[in-house]
Specification:
By secondary structure, the protein is mostly helical. Helix content is about 70%, strand content about 0%. The termini are far apart.
């Protein structure tokens, strides 16, 4: 039995060597001394130039799309930084007129924060208005006095502490604006 096993092993080894030899013979028949052999297809220089031109066009189109997206982003940023009209900012402040809150209640933090934000919007709009900040001297002075009172602290506790000043400033500016309808219509 050992003779048969040895014979099978030898036959398998010979077959593997023959297959490997066939592969090696196939590889050595390619001539590589003067460039690619006959089995490599010829590519005309005009086809290569065409492919290079197409790649350059694709790169230019990608750059153009990137530049366009960048320009759109810059335009959106400019629109966000453009101050809004006084009438729009005043409309936001007027939307709070019938609202009020009790300090400590759940909605008071939202309400006072909103009044504070609407006053800041109106302040920015009045300062950027074409008539100039001198035209809005009284409302801007009231907002400035409120900012001095708040001293940069817009926490809920501080807004509740200065609740009467916030609401008073809102109401006095509303009264002033009602006397100057040309500024918000």
């Amino acid at each position: 039995m050992s003779v048969r096993t040895n014979a099978r092993g030898a036959a398998t080894a010979v077959a593997a060597a023959a297959v490997l030899g066939a592969f090696l013979v196939g590889c050595t028949s390619v001539s590589a001394s003067q460039g690619p052999g006959d089995d490599v297809p010829y590519v005309a220089p005009s086809v290569n130039a065409s492919a290079m031109a197409k790649a350059a066009d694709d790169d230019a189109a990608a750059k153009s799309a990137s530049d366009e997206a960048s320009a759109e982003a810059e335009a959106a940023e400019a629109a966000r930084n453009t101050p809004e009209a006084v009438r729009d900012a005043f409309a936001g402040l007027q939307a709070t007129l019938n609202d009020n809150c009790t300090p400590g209640s759940a909605d008071c933090a939202y309400f006072l924060g909103r009044v504070n934000d609407e006053l800041a919007r109106l302040d920015k709009a009045m300062k950027a208005d074409a008539q100039g900040p001198g035209h809005f001297k009284e409302p801007l002075a009231r907002i400035s006095a409120l900012r001095t009172t708040l001293n940069g602290d817009t926490s809920t506790a501080d807004l509740e502490k200065h609740r009467s000043e916030l609401i008073g400033t809102r109401d006095r500016i509303n009264t002033w604006m009602q006397g100057h309808p040309e500024d918000y219509r």
